[in-house]
User: What shape does this take?
Amino acid sequence: MLILVSCKKSFLDVPPQGQPSPSLDPQVALDEVTAAYSALISPDPTGASAFGGYDIHGVFFITVTNIISDDADKGSYDLDQPPAKDIDNFTLTSDNTYISGLWRGHYAGISRTNNAINALAAAALDSNTVKIRTAEMRFIRGYLYFNLVRMFGGVPLVLRVPTGPRDSDSLFYYRASVSDVYNKAIIPDLQYAVNNLPLRTQTDLGRATKGAAETLLAKAYLYLKNWQQAYNLTQDVINSGQYQLLADYSQLWRQAGDNSIESIFEVETGIYGGADNGIPEYCEMQGPRQDNGMGIPTTPWYNPAAWNPTNDGGWGFDTPTQDLVNSYDSGDVRKAATIIDLPPSGPPDTLYDGFVVPTMVGIQAYYNYKAWHSERRNNQIEVFYGDRSRKQKNIHLLRYAETLLINAEAANELGNSGAATADLNAVRSRANLGPTTAVSQDDLRNAIWKERRVELAMEHDRFWDLVRQGRAAQVMQASGKTNFAAGKNELLPIPSSEIALSGGKLTQNPGY
Amino acid sequence: MKKKLAIGNPHSCAIKKVLLVMKLSFLLVLAGSLQVSANVSGQTAITIKADNTEIVKILSNIEKQGSYRFLYNSRLKSLQQRVSIDVSNEDIKDVLNKLFGTTDLTYKLLENNLVVVTSKELASQDIKVTGKVTNENGEGLSGVSITVQGAVGGTSTDNNGNFSLTVSEKGTLIISYIGYQTQTVAVNGQSVINIKMLQSSRALDEVVVVGYGTQRKIDVTGATGSVKGTELVKQPVMTATQAIQGKVAGVQIISSGQPGSSPQVRIRGTGSILAGADPLYVVDGIITDDISNINTADITSVDVLKDASSTAIYGARAANGVILITTRQGSGKMKVNYTGTLGIRQAANLVKMANSTEYLAYEKAALGPPINPTGYSTDWYNEILRTAFYQNHNISVSGGSDKNKYLLSLSYMTDEGIVIDNNFNRITARLNDEFIVSSIFKIGVYASYSNGVGQNVPLGIIFPDAYRAAPVIPGMVDGKYGNTSQFQNVGNPILDAKRTDDKSIDNRLQGTGYAELKPVPWLTLRTSFGDELDYSEDRQYTYMLPNDTTVFTTNGGSQGPTLSNLAITTGKFYHWTWDNTISYNQTFNKHHITALVGTTSEKYYSSSISASRPNVPPNPNLWYLQNGDQNLQYNSSSANEYTRNSYIGRIFYSYEEKYLLTVTYRADGSSVFPEQNRWGYFPSIGAGWVINKEGFMSRQNIFSYLKLRAGWGRVGNSNIPSDAAVPTLLQNQPYFFNGGVVSGSFVPQIKDQNIKWETSDETDIGLEFTTLKGRLSGEIDVYDKKTNDALILVRVPGTFGSQANPNSSITPGYVLTNAASIENKGLEISLRWNDNINDKISYHVGGNITFNNNNVIGLNGGSPYFDGNINGYFVTETTNGHPIGSYFVRKVIGVFQSKDEVNAYVDKNGNLLQPGAQAGDLKYQFNDNGKLDTAFAGSYQPVAYYGINLGASYKNFDISIDLYGNFGNKVYNGKRQARVVVTDNIEESMAVNRWTPQNHSQTEPEANGGNLPASTYFVASGNFFRINNVTIGYNLPPKILQKQKVITSLRVFVTSQNPLTIKSYSGFTSELPGTTPTNAGIELSTYPTTKTFAVGISLGL
Assistant: This one.
């Protein structure tokens, strides 16, 4: 009988096949760190769709950073993607699917960092490795909370792994205040990262570095108007000697500019599983669209002399506005590097790789050049294995030009106009522009803000910058976005589905 | 480490178990033999004294003295006679002579001091009896069973209905045959006995399969249904379940016309939200999930166990009912049978799409700028559909003697799809063989092999593309494809089918071997080991297609992958079931008891490997991975494993065949649950009262049969993924450091580590009757089934960070947990009338209807489950007080007729409710707070479904008509809502009937760009009624056949499956199974229902 009992137990004791359980294996802890980075490419492990409901840097992110701002329009044709149209026009409501996708995507990423931090603490790894990898995780977590606080204001502060699906801890259900998000998550996480991360040259390309943590923390302090901290941190980055401006601005967002001397932190992409592994739909969404969904082209528009192009660059979203185009001073090399300029009646626009943008009745006159990734396969210019939806486009989240501009802005606010002017002119000089003519603190501030706009155009910064600067309503309304309601549209609504799931404990932002 | 050892050692455990069971079996056999052959010690004198005591007790007292054992039939009345006796030290013979003196009893003294006591009446002389058994038309019936009352053995009739048997001249023959009334005939010294069988009105004498055994239908206390194999084989369908549609009350079959697909079966409503609502299939004792490998012609009967009192013997897997398939067994003289069917198949109903003119007019209204006409007007359905060919051939050899019963069958089926390039072929072979080694021991095997080869096309892409593709694009011109995608994001549907060469092969071997020992007539020991072995391979080659004028009529688009690709997936599984049962069957006077105890163990293991490489040359003989690009190779493997261990018990008791009681109990342990919740216990009780056997009924002649029965049972559902309760790491999460790739892993899902069985309690009350001189019979059941601790996905807040896991079936952001109760209440009525108008014409009319009311009643956690996502809008909500998968959508109250009406549509504060709306847009209902009203709009689950079965025969002709329908449900026209691009085509009715300034429609909106939110605009009635099957057959008369010796029977028939459907829904079909109960009823890329016309022949040699 005893035999029977013990047998019964082992016969029915069948672990799931092919899926390891989390264990104390040190390699698992390191794998969880990698997976947290991987969330920056896509927090949806299937990576299947941009519209799958989980997003950090994909279509939804592009929409709430670029399209929402005065730098870009939704693009495509009017009826395509109503949630994006609602965000663009500030007619969005709390059940907008893009918003819930960003909420879920960011918390999915945070969950990966929390799990990795747990695993690192328990793993039998040397303490230095644990410290550095933990700092990397806290850098990513700090970054994700920084995005969340900019999108939603105060959000639930999840800094640990839930015990199970019924974990009733209020931290999963209630919003923390904006200052708590900064003071209990972003600043401690990034400060820990600053204290423990190595310099860029001392670690693998692609990992978070001390310089990245300092720049990001400085940026957070900029939002908090803590000028001294922002200045000190960026000064430290400048003094580290690790970074320089890349001479050719147009190379920054091409594959040739990946991990350049100017790069401080970027989302790395590459090839995996026999296929391109980039941010789902990032390039395809923003690629020039060959048709307007209205008619059948009657003549071939491709250039027969070139390789056989596919003639269709993508879906034509996130198109630069005339306002952005106009904001470049003449001679600014950044304009041509940022914007595919396609006059409706003009000649074919040939891109750097030889791709000829169709000139038929286009939906839009402008496209985002920074999102272009070459598909040219013979005589390869950029690595492309045929999956247009997962093109290997690195997202350049932090680069040295921004460090200089943060330093400039902080210096200016601290009354150090000399340092501010020097930083600004360094950035302008690379853009083939002369020194700034601004002298007064106010003029200099406006000059720096304007420089941020053109330097970082289409790089997911403009809208939050305007909100930070307290002039979102003014600029938005001036740009024709008359639906923008001051005191409301600076933040996105908390997703209604999440409010329902919290049992009403999550409160809605004003006005929604 | 300890734990690892335990896990790694299941084989040795299995062996130990085998040994243990063998030991137990041996002991029982031994115990059984002891009864009949007690130790012997030669002649022993007997001393006994008894006064006015029953003979049987005196015999028992003699037995107690230890020397003699008596064997007798306890039904012998004389044994109850009271006698007095007083003997001392007398020989046994003298004692027995005295004892039996005044009775009709006699005895025979065998070796080993075994005494057989019989009645003198029976001890009369044996004679040889011959005869012929015929049907009502005087034709010989083959395979009729003839047994002798109170005796072992018997015979069956040969092909011509003849039999011969040696029997006591005073014996009684029992003649029984499925579908006919059992007759008893006293021999009375006759040497020739011819019997004419009468068709059984309600097949009460029929034996039905009840799980781990059989039972007479009259004795069954639970709700069951049965369909005979002959009903199935006439229908040109692949799977038996499709052929039982409309034939059993309480069983809802929703079939798809797709070749090789299995229909969805719901028994008594949808009892589970997520743990699977499909019934359990048991094929000759083998538990399986799908029966598409079983040749319908091999099936003798399909028995359906519906209520929990009858399904509880299958415990943890029985919550959705059990379908028992019994395959044929041979008997009598060797017979060869051939049945062949040839036919054609077409789409039963298509949706008419707008032609170019209508399309251009619609687009002009939707877009503004006109699209130029092209001169083409393509009907895309016409381009991708075809008339398909169907054939099915079966040949079988069967026969049997008292030593061996056998059936060997082969079948070949071609089922072309109605979509171009889509085919399915199946070969099956079966050997059922039973060896009667001795009168107490037999062994046998049921073995089947099936080989299915499918040429697959991506139906899930072709159908939506055909629906969306603009008619102004040509299908093909001069060998080049019309470029649908340069115009919109739609692939050319023809190219969809041609672009990929996808061939799948499935080989399945299913077999059970069994041994049965009957040491004494009342005890049966049986062990059976069944195994299913499956090997499948899928080879998919995608051609490289440049998006230029070498392939397309115009350049551009992104339809063709610019690299060719070869993907190969191989999968295999095994699933064994080992049953050991002991059954006991004894009658004491008016008491009849059968009992069963047993164990069953089960193990399932599946694994698959898939690999792919691009840039493989297009030549099929080079479709091997090594010919592709090594740098872009991909491979992966996965597996699934679970085990079960169960103990079963059942007792059936009847008194005077009038009062019936069945009690069952099953304990199930399953590996998919965490250790603390692993075991589930499933009891049931059923009682029956055969009222017509009561004395007070003897004076009436209204009911020849009347039975009332009631049952209660508890069953479980363990049909959840093996990883449902265990947190697991998801691998292959890449990141790129130093330009190289590193693969990470993480825990994507939060799991409920305390998950347990879903249990259902069901009460059933039924009434069975036969009346009007056997012409009308019927069965009425009411049931109430409540599923507790139903496994449901509960959505967790986003802050928990639960994510998608491609290895798991759990929806991202959800946790599978026990958090709901579901109720199914229903009423089933079946009636059947059969009669003969004269001896040439007979007919029958049968009908059944099932009313079922499904409700979610105890959803806790306040987290309704949304499903049926179309363009980001969830179409269904599963929540308290509503059926599973109810549509929960915006309510459309009309169409705005003017901009003034839009401006007048304001909330109480005067704010516009639909500010962006234009005349011709749909008008949605808002509530008092100015918020959009989202309301429940019915569900896919019908109020009732019904079947009608008609049949008649005239001389050698026969006709049968089967009808099926349902009413009271809704379907959702998801494909209309899935219109995402303004240039997608529209249905003709939408184009023609749309609102225009001239046509003030209140139901069809103005031309629009699609992307409409989920609303009642897309909800339609799901009522339908169809002719399921019409068959007309002709049997060649015996007179003609008698002129030659070769052919013994010949039947020709014409049949049509699904020739006519009447429905109000405008889509392809109202039968929309969906993939889960929560997304059923939504038409997106549904395969159109097909209609088949076929001719067939059935030949007996």
User: Anything to note?
Assistant: The CA atoms of residues 313 and 666 of chain B lie 6 Å apart.
